[in-house]
Description:
The structure holds 2 protein chains of 2 kinds.
Chain A: H1 3-10, H2 19-151, H3 158-179
Helix pairs in contact in A: 2-3
Chain B: E1 37-39, E2 44-46, H1 48-68, H2 77-103, H3 107-122, H4 138-169, H5 179-222, H6 228-269
Antiparallel strand pairs in B: 1-2
Helix pairs in contact in B: 1-2, 1-3, 2-3, 2-6, 3-6, 4-5, 4-6, 5-6
Keywords (chain A): ATP synthesis, Cell membrane, CF(0), Coiled coil, Hydrogen ion transport, Ion transport, Membrane, Transmembrane, Transmembrane helix, Transport
Organism (chain A): Streptomyces toxytricini (Actinomyces toxytricini)
Membrane topology (chain A): Single-pass membrane protein
Amino acid sequence: MNPLVQIAAEVENPLIPPIPELVIGLIAFVIVFGFLAKKLLPNINKVLDERREAIEGGIEKAEAAQTEAQSVLEQYKAQLAEARHEAARLRQEALEQGTALKEELRAEGQRQREEIIAAGHAQIEADRKAASQALRQDVGKLATDLAGKLVGESLEDAARQSRTIDRFLSELEEKAEAAR
Amino acid sequence: MSADPTQVLAFETDCHIFDGCGFPAPGLHSFLFEPIFGDADSSVYFNKTMLLALLGSVIILGFFWAAFRKPKMVPGKLQMVAEAGYDFVRRGIVYETLGKKEGEKYVPFMVATFFFVWMMNLWSIIPVAQFPVTSVIAYPAGLALVIYVMWMSVTFKRHGFVGGLKNLTGYDKSLGGILPLVMLIEFFSNVLVRPFTHAVRLFANMFAGHTLLLLFTIASWYLLNGIGIAYAGVSFVMVIVMTAFELFIQAVQAYVFVLLACSFLQGAVAEHH
């Protein structure tokens, strides 16, 4: 018979731990625990923390970039709106200036036209006066000549002559006035 | 008791069915080993289970040393596997039961315990070794003892002597008249039975698993004669199936062992109820 079977037959309860195995088992465990706790797990924990920070840092960076992009976009939008506003303002100003200029030109034209008309009227009046003066003299001369021929007497006395004619003409004018 | 190499195997190798040889069934003797050196009677000896225990420690440390010695931000394959294992114990067991705040300082211990137990279980199906170290009561008992001492010291440190006793005995005034009975049962169950069942649960699972594997392995060999060969095939298939099953049980038992340790501590750090 196998000697181990014999030992088993006389051996004590299998639930009673043999001390040497217990000691070796604990030593083996303590070795594992010691190395893991003191060296290897702190190592990996450091790296895990670093990795987590790196990932979080990346997220933060992306967030910062996004915020910046947002602010730049708003800036652009504001600038664009400002430019549009400026353009509208310039257009409005130009329109106003154009209108004012047109108004001014029209007024100037009006004034010149009125001046020209007035000058024309004055000229006409002056011409009429000159013509009437010349006419008066011519009519006087013709009348005296005619009268001299009729009476056979030279009415040379210019002064008299003139007085008579003037009186006559004035009477004519008065009659014309009265008839009006 | 001489260390005769021909007697290392616990059954006769030339024994087959129909040879007028009885079935060399596995038994308690399958878990006893002749010392490699030293004398079993003098308590100063070194045997296979001790060798496997120390070798297992070296393997665990070798693995984690290779994985975590120079850990990188972007892990390699080995580091990734080791990280997954570490994270499984840390998050899956310790944080789950004790929470991050209370559990953090127990993480290294629990990680070491888990991988130690698992490795000792794994020896069961590693060729040549093929013996679960945890099926010798001394190994689970040692671990359970460490956990028991830790648990008790946390309990009394946290609650003081009277508070600790109340914590261990489930003291609850609202129970009224049956309180003494409850306290007695709780004390018995927590303080006396728990460490025992903690160790025996692991021991018995590995013991039974190894016995089953032995049974089918020995049967496969024993039946190799005449018509018995057909049955030997069936038995061998069972060896394969049981090996796969053991692989599963080994991991589960390591998990359960650590989970229980954590739940003991959780009871200790819990507030009075």
